[in-house]
Amino acid sequence: MTTSAAVTALRKRHIWLDALPDTIAIPALEARQRPATVKAIEDATLDDIAFAMLVTEAEFNAVGDKLHALRKLYSLARQAGALGADRAVGAISDGGGR
Question: pTM of whole model > 0.85?
Answer without folding.
Answer: no
